Recover the amino acids of this structure.
């Protein structure tokens, strides 16, 4: 993970770099630093903790300079402290790095044998030392970077400056994102468009293996063979406002409340009065989908949970077999791929290392084609897929995914409907499902109105250490998502089970200290779920039940806390029931005083394995 910003400009760049880092802090926030070239010297400031800690140190002793690099870190090699914070300096070179160098240990030993003394535990300092060696051997900065990256195994995005070449920053990427911001008389590098949107909306998205050199006057891109390559300048549609927190206390709260709009945007111009519109998955998409005989869905975390919901939908409505797997497992095993299988990658960021690697691996496994469901148009996952469906959630800053999930569900619902229609789903059922999907933004809006009741419920969780989440059918992934939200931002240990599985082991955990959260839509499995809830009651567990308005709940089944929801139909119920679980996790975290938007040990975009 980690975030990178760099600049070559006429003006002093430190304030721009700090502003860029703040926009990138979602990528890592355990230490930060920046280095600026001025008068043949490297001026550097680094601090453990968030960007604001480093900013305070910089403001206490600011330094001018128009060329600089900066970094916010998510620790991989070495604990979070100042010595391990970037930029790392070796002789005349300073570098910031995102990614993991897998052969760093052997490179480090070789460098030590040649007399290098290391001041950090990081893999990054190895790159700095190697570049410094090459420059000492007579190469220019760009040539030195090119020579060194050939010997690196693993993933990197780097930005490097040299005292000997004022006004120049060299960047390179492989397996981690990096883009160029094109300003007027100034150029920038950044891990994503959010870091640069305050200074320019004109971006060059670098390809795998690219090396780039920026100065005030120009940005020039080279391939790994050192030859210049052309990369288009694109206008980013991101607006600076979209990354503001507005009136909300946290980004997560803002993003939860943005869901009706985000879902409506995801459906717009894709779902018409008569159903899914032609080719919403890209040119030739409908023809390809018509040939599909099975689906493999690959993703991580929240995106994986969205894929699990889609399995229920596609199997029920399109009668196609669906396998869903976490990307970190899929990439390292020999999955059997029957003829005609579609590979679907789901990712908010489009840069998740495991998902990207799984997608690349899928290329040699003989799929019919690949479809990316993603929120970032220029991301690697989108660029490498045959078909794409963008989720249009807008920037998601909170580390805990919220609107990304519900918009992924909206996109997967479109896919399910398209596959089902092509396989003969009858008119009446198709029309009903489409109508439910059209009504989803309104149903989410109504679920959001439960917030005051959920704040009261959240009080019960303040002293708890554990919680169980239960769901059946397509609500099981919703229970998984609810438990993931609670654990990642409130640090309460939470697990989710299909409700029928409780009696096969987890029931042993249930006592008066164990809150059990259940999702109860109205449907064929409701009576089964009610029996499972009775099992919890009988053991003294505290039940918190989110039930559909239409779901008959007798007093016994609902004893504990019962919140009624208008789920808007069985098809869209998973998306609707997710909302109160997000709100519950959010308010529990607020009451427990955790860092809601940047929970400990995590980062938003997981670009390392
Ligand atoms: C969940 O709240 C997390 N943010 C995490 O599980 C996330 O969904 C996962 O890392 C996958 O990210 P992606 O969607 O960007 O690929």
């Amino acid at each position: 993970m980690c975030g990178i910003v760099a600049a070559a400009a006429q003006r002093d760049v430190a304030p721009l770099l700090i502003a860029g880092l703040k926009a990138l802090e979602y990528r890592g926030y355990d230490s930060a630093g920046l280095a600026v070239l001025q008068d043949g010297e490297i001026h550097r400031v680094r601090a453990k903790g968030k960007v604001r800690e480093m900013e305070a140190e910089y403001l206490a002793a600011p330094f001018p300079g128009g060329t600089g690099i900066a970094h916010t870190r998510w620790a991989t090699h070495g604990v979070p402290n100042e010595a391990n914070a970037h930029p790392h300096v070796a002789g005349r070179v300073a570098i910031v790095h995102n990614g993991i160098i897998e052969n760093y240990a052997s490179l480090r030993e070789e460098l030590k044998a040649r007399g290098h003394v290391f001041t950090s535990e990081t893999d990054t300092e190895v790159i700095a030392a190697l570049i410094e060696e090459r420059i000492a051997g007579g190469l220019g900065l760009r040539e030195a970077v090119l020579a060194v990256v050939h010997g690196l195994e693993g993933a990197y995005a780097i930005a490097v400056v040299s005292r000997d070449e004022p006004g120049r920053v060299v960047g390179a990427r492989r397996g981690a994102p990096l883009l160029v911001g094109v300003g007027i008389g100034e150029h920038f590098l950044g891990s994503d468009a959010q870091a640069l949107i305050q200074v320019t909306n004109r971006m060059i998205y670098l390809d795998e293996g690219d090396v780039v050199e920026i100065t005030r006057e120009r940005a020039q891109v080279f391939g790994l063979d050192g030859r210049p390559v052309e990369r288009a300048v694109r206008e980013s549609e991101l607006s600076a406002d979209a990354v503001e927190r507005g009136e909300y206390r946290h980004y997560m709260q803002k993003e939860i409340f943005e869901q009706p709009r985000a879902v409506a945007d995801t459906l717009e111009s894709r779902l018409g009065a008569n159903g899914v519109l032609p080719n919403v998955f890209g040119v030739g998409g409908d023809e390809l989908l018509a040939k599909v005989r099975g689906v493999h869905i690959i993703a991580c975390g929240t995106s994986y949970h969205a894929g699990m919901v889609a399995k229920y939908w596609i199997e029920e409505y399109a009668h196609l077999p669906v396998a869903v797997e976490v990307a970190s497992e899929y990439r390292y095993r020999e999955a059997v791929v029957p003829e005609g299988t579609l590979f679907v990658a789901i990712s908010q960021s489009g840069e998740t290392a495991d998902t990207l690697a799984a997608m690349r691996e899928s290329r040699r496994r003989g799929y019919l084609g690949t479809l990316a469901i993603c929120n970032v148009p220029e991301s690697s996952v989108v660029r490498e897929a045959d078909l794409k469906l963008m989720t249009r959630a807008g920037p998601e800053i909170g580390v805990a995914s919220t609107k990304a999930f519900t918009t992924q569900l909206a996109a997967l619902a479109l896919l399910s409907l398209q596959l089902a229609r092509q396989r003969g789903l009858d008119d009446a059922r198709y029309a009903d499902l489409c109508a439910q999907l059209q009504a989803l933004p309104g149903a989410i809006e109504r679920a959001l109105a439960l917030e005051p009741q959920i704040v009261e419920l959240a009080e019960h969780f303040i002293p708890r250490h554990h919680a169980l989440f239960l769901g059946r059918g397509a609500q099981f992934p919703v229970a998984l998502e609810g438990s993931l939200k609670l654990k990642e931002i409130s640090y309460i240990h939470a697990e989710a089970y299909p409700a029928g599985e409780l009696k096969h082991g987890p029931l042993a955990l249930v006592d008066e200290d164990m809150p059990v959260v259940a999702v109860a839509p109205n449907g064929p499995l409701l009576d089964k779920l009610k029996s499972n809830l009775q099992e919890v009651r009988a053991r003294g567990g505290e039940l918190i039940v989110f039930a559909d308005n239409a779901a008959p709940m007798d007093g016994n089944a609902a004893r504990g806390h019962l919140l009624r929801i208008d789920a808007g139909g069985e098809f869209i119920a998973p998306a609707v029931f997710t909302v109160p679980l997000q709100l519950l996790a959010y308010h529990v975290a607020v009451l427990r005083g955790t860092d809601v938007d940047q929970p400990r040990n995590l980062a938003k975009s997981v670009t390392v394995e």
